[in-house]
Input
Amino acid sequence: MSGSLPFYQKNHRHYDRGYRNKETASKMSQYQSSSSSSSSRYFAGSSTSATSSSRGLRVSSHSGLEESRLSPIPKRTKPTYLAVDKENQIIGYVIPIFRGSQEFATGFSDTEESRVRDMARRDLFSSGLEMERSELISRKEAMRESADRICLNKRIHDQEEHSKRMNEDSLMHPPEFVIKPRSHTVWEKQCVRLHCTVTGWPNPRVVWYKNNVAIESIANPGKYKLESKYSVHSLDINRCDFDDTAQYHVSAMNSKGELSAFASVVVKRFKGEVDEYMPAPRHGPVSEYGVTFQTHIVDKFGVSFGREGETMSLGCTVVIYPSLHRYQPEVQWYKDGVLLSPSKWYQMHWSGDRATLTLAHLNKEDEGLYTLRVTTKSGYETYSSYVFVRDSDAEMEGAPGAPLDVRCLDANKDYIIVTWKQPAVDGGHSILGYFVDRCEVGTNHWIQCNDTPVKFARFPVTGLVEGRSYVFRVRAINNSGMSHPSRVSEPVAAMDPGDRARLRGTSAPWTGQIIVTEEEPAEGIVPGRPLELQVTEATKNYVVLSWKPPGEKGLEGVRYYVEKCVSGTDTWQRVNTEIPVKSPRFALFDLAEGKSYSFRVRCCNPAGVGEPSDPTEATTVGDKLDIPSAPSKVVPIRNTDTSVVVSWVASSDAKELVGYYIEGSIVGSNVWEPCNNKPVNVTRFICHGLMTGEKYVFRVRAVNAAGLSGFSPESEPVEVKAAIASPAPPFGISVLECVRDSMVLAWKQPSFIGGADISGYFVDYREVVDGVPGKWHEANIKAVSERAYRVSDLMENRKYQFQVRAANMAGVGIPSLPSDTFPCKEWTIAVPGPPHDLQVREVRNDSLVLLWKPPVYQGRDAVNGFYIDIKEEDAPVEAWRSVNNKATEKTYMKIKNLKEGEVFVFRVRAQNKAGVGKTSEVTEPVSAVTKPGTNEISVAVDDDGIISLNFECCDLTPDSKFVWSKNYEEITDASRLTMETKGNKSKAVFNTPAEEDIGIYSCIVTHTDGASSSYDLSEQELKRLLEVSHDHKFPIIPLKSELAVELLEKGRVRFWLQAEKISADGKVDYVFNENLISQGEKYKMNFDKSTGVIEMIMESLTPADEGTFTFRLKDGKATNQSSLVLIGDVFKGLQKESEFQMKEWVRKQGPHFIEYLSYEVTPECCVLLKCKVGNVKKETSALWYKDGREIKADEHLGFTEGVLKLEIAQCDCPADTADSDVIWRKIKISKKDSGVYEVVLKDDRGKDTSKLNLTDQGFKDLMNEVFSFIANSSTPLKITSTDEGIRLYTFVNFYNDLLQVTWHYKDSAISFSDRIKSGVVGEQLWLQITEPTEKDTGKYAIEFHDGKGGLRRTVELAGQAFDDAFAEFQRLKSAAIAEKGRARVAGGLPDVVTIQEGKALNLTCNISGDPVPKVTWLKNDREITSDDHCILKFESGKFASFTITAVNTSDTGKYSILVKNKYGTESGDFTVSVFIPEEAAGKKK
Output
């Protein structure tokens, strides 16, 4: 390309239009100008082909000046051969035609050209020698002119260079794209390069972007490669995949400005692979509402496994920044690259931040790669993961899986060819065939289409009704049973394909459809012969023919007749005799299997039947499709810790291949499981859901419509674990020390080590001169294992950059970014250099451990301590604070009291006598959070007394290792500790624990997310462990209980103990007073080894048994013993108790008391004597005694559920004796009821006696319980008023004369007097205050005494309560006084007086009242006065008399005496009846 540039572009890195000055203006005009004819000829001759090949791009010269400003001097311009588009943007170069002849042919000026034409005309018929001579002269002149032009150009160039040197500011100009990057469309796995040419001064800085995100080749090692040479900048994308489809742009920037250019890359996949139908991305950073969106898909769904019939949801959280209200991105779901639409199988949901796809009813057809695509105005993001669907459980064990992918291959009016795919699971038995079922759309009635199973996965269904739609399903069968039916097919109509083709357009309301008819057939023209007849498909059940209609126009309405002929005969038989077919495709049935047939077709229309087509070759009826051959060379490759990539060589010569099924088996199990349940049509597949750490073998088989092939040979075993890769680049390069010719570097471990331990590092360096870096040189040939290295052979006072590469068993990774530029100048500071290699371990919620290495540069004096600094990640620099105020000499520290969930960074400083030195590099941010599943180191002592430290890791990977350290230095000396690792557990065993083992022991697990822990073995802890170890070495059988004694039934004595744990080999010796005793009549031994219970039983104790009993245990090397001393009072007490128990047993052989006689006070304050008896029978009698005298009331005695009762009561008041309970009631219990009560049970087996002493204290306790019931039944203390004063009272349910109560006033006992009295009326207890005054106000209480705490009832007689009571007392007192002084007729008057006429009547009555009442007598309600006939007297104010000296009949009537004083009035009435004696006699008669 450089050969086509003008010299001023070749020699300078800047290209500017403003460098011309006025002195050279005319010369430049002459240089740039050329004749229009020569320019047009050049473009006509040399650019035409380039233009045509550039799809409309035009090629022009780029001189830097507009043509209107060119000088009219006809001079030829020198083209630059740049290709530009319609917008005049340079997009590339055009290679010119060889200029040796073309340029000379078109490089003359107009004058020269006319002179040549004249000479050519003049000498047209002259001799050849003259023509050659004139042409030679013309060429010489042209060459001379060309040399002059070159000389002029050089002079102009030199002048311009001088002008630029004189004015340096004119050199600076903003970036400009001479050539912009071009868009590309490539196939997947191809490589693509985007390049551009940029000018500008100072040299622009060029950055490449993908979807507005800067591309860093180090972050994507091997994916991107960036190069910049001679102002040409390129971006190489290696092995493009679908995610590389994006918009790329390159940005050039210097101090004068910034400029960007854009290009798009579209990556396509070959047909058959996923993402084939993925839409292309949106190009360009299109903004919505003036912003550019950034889309991130988080919380993604992983590889998913489901089962047929289940429901599965796939979801991802989508974060779009910035978040705009009501902005709706385009969310799409794809399966195997095909866009999904909502249906009964797929349901999509978008909640605003989460996209969800729900598979409502899983079938094996749903297995595949699912992709979520979120598109915004600024681009798109995708995420994909695989979904596997297993067969549902078969109804019959051993039945095959359901077929899948049922489709209708060919549909006609009377048949439909149904095809399907065979299942991967055959149930352990070969599949015998398949049954096809059909169901008319709109019904639920399924009809089996074939009577016998078909093996070919394609079947023609006949017997259909034209115009109706059907759905189909398929079932597989083997010797064990029938499979579940497949998912139903899409509905298809049984109709002629020609009619189906004519049904186009939208429905019309009057017909339901629009029929687009073809051209009317020509009348009277018989159609020609059909063309290209061929047999497209042939099986033993049917043959499918296809052909092309005749090519004549006007014959579009033709029909077809199909004819067949058995090979070897000339007889042609028409197949469709009744109705000709409309479509150029026909299926023939009912052909004899094994016979050969030829076929031909005729066209027909109303004008007649045309000539037959050429017959087909003889076709033998039978399955032409063979089962494919088995695949080969199955190769498994490690992928992840749960998946393996399996590849194989495809089946050879396989026809109509549907795909492959892959099966896997754990080595040695001989159990094969399908890895996919839907055939894959590629030769590479990722098998997921495998068990980490297990070894698997794989096999593959192919499938087509004819069936499944045999299995391929088994693959080599492969262990399921993550594949390894080369490590990522290290980072954080810093200088630890610098001398005159060497520098010590340090760096940080790569964030990704590739799945394998880093074996070493390689360091490169380069010199930087005046800001321009030189070439890289290797600093070390052999890898260094430490993350620090001294680079030697450097030049003093020179500047250098460094890069580091990490290596593991997979290879050497890409280098790190170049470090900062460091001068190689010897350090002379007095303080130490920076510590390095900071590591964080044992991260917990509130603590972590920080490790570091001391500085390489010590300073003037040795380092004597370290300071650790901490700050929050987002805090400013001023937030650094020291963890330790006193320098620590150790190179590790446990940092405590961290805030849970906070993110921290740390740094370390070293100090010596001169002071504190440089700070180390800052650690990576660390979050103070305990990771789930974190375990701590535990200490254990086994049965042999061996002390060990144990650590378990749950996140172990196949490449993980346990690394033990003491004081955070790896343990390499095996003399003190022995490390053992098994599975995910590791332990460090102390060989000979001693004081030198004191320290902090830690364990870290490699290839994990920092799994680590530590254990501080202090002096005290070591001492404790040694004691435990001694106990384990010389074990003692632990005892749950020591030797003890207890009494059994009959007074037998049991000696026993229980061991914690004892084996079947355990033994025991029984010793009494140092003498072994053995099993016999006196001693019964028993040893239950399962429970550890050891016992010895003696029937009784004698004085000779006083002494020491010992049980000696032995179990292997473990021993123990326990003794029990039985002497003196202890032995005598046990012997006495044994004898008592013996007597008790004898007693219980007859009727006896289970519970002895006791009393119970009922809520009614009744005293009930009761006892519980046992072993009684009908003849058993119970006799009650009091003070030795039998209670005779036998009818009141009885048993109720083994309980004998007697209520202390008077005998004159019997009560209900239901349930044979003896109950005597008495109103009050008194001292007469005290005494000794006794019950005697007896029958022919013996007797038993129980006594209860209710005298003295016993009776007192009984009465106290009665008093307690009385007290608890008392009502609250109340206040009432009488005519004498105020009364306080309470009621009890039952009162006893023995009850003692005390009245209190203001917490002091009341001394009773004539004014304050207490008493009892029935069940009422009262306190009377006569003539109360204000001094009587206060708190009153009554206290019931029950021999315990008693009960007190209180009332407050004060305030309103006292006022109300006192007022009522005054009222009652006044009423009493009035009642006492009221006039009264006390008595003496009869109700009726019958007297004989003539007799004297004298009546007298007593009168009371104060003052003396006034007396008035009335007769028949009329007042009468005293006279001689009726004498009325009132004497002494007390006696009133009524006297009639001689009564007569007129005295008959009603008489009343009325007494009255100021307190009231009262009357007395009587009636006087006077009779005559004769009347009386007559009445008698």
Observations:
- The mean pLDDT is 81.
- The first strand starts at residue 58 and ends at 60.
- DSSP finds 13 helices and 103 strands in the chain.
